[in-house]
Amino acid sequence: MKRPGLWKQAVLCCFALIFAPNAHAVEYSVSGFGTVGGAISDNSTTMQRFINDKGTFSRDSLLGVQLDAKFNEKWSATTQVIVAPRVDEDTGVAPQLKWTLLSYRPSNDWLIRVGRLSLGGLLNQQNMDVGVSYDMARLPNEVYLLSSSYDFDGISLAKTWNASQFDITLDGSFGFQKRDLRSYGNGSQTQRYYSADVSGGALVLTVSDLDRTMYRLGWDMMYVKPVAAGGFLSKYTFTQLPGGLYTLGMPQYTSGAFFHSFFLGGRFPVGDFMVSSECTAVIPENVEPAPPSISAYVSLSYKWNKWTPYLTYAQMWTSGMDTWRKVQGATPIPQLGITQAAIDDAASLMAVYEQNSWMLGTSYAISPKQKLKAEAMLTHVGERSAMFDGPIAHENVMVYSLSYNFSF
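Above: the chain's sequence. Below: its structure in token form.
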């Protein structure tokens, strides 16, 4: 990700290591993790940037390393770097600085963190890159599509209350980031990345026990300001033509926009089964190409010796289909530069999703730090899904995935 201050947080931790009290007594630990994962679909239209009928290792594969330093009972620092597919173009890999923060715990029930951290309220927000920490081959993209959007350089303040059976934690955070946003033009058949300055804050309430139960409720607000002079496309306009036809008019732009995200999730055992479910709602303010969306999934898994088979259903709904249909129905006027390709590009800029997925898979624990995973996923696309690079509609797409996940 293109961030001018990419290494500022690493420098912060280095200074902490050098100047911390009793630096000679610092306790260090190094850990690593990774995934080697392949995926192939039965459709030539690419989904999730990489998956199509040619197969890919780019969607899920990554390698990460984490350095932890404990200065004393109150101060500690963490730096995590992963090597994964680039987030500012569709080819190549690059190192990405994920976690780099300084932590201060003045008492058992307070925690202050400063640096690069994640503000979102998803259940696996903190560990989503560590594939060995969960059993699904891939976290449902209907819900986790925007998960990387919640990495910020900022500050977090958390308060924990210890009840008789549960710990209750309220985490408030605020930060900034430089983010690369991606769009794909169905008419021109090209992807485009553009940078934006993002500021935001979050409140996340977590209730968990000492076993496997966790409930989480969260709200995140972000202000996104594109670096480009034009800003965001905020509204489509149309020009009436004779005979009841119409074409695209001059679009309206805004310098920036607010996005609100709401999270609700939980996982809990039911007998020998484990149930996980999450729901998110993303509500933009005055950005017509990014209409409000709701997504959710429910997953049921069963642990049998070293095997953990699971069945997951996920769905994503988006309003704004009427606007998308109207843009699609515009009449080309080539002499005015309004070609069919331009109309298709304008329509595909809309982040609308009408799809659902069934995922049947299993993990096999070779050891506590090694897992093999296999999954078959059936995705049904309705009228339109921006998760695909192309004009796919009213089709079923099968995706087969196999991965080796490890930590050390």
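The chain has a mean pLDDT of 92.
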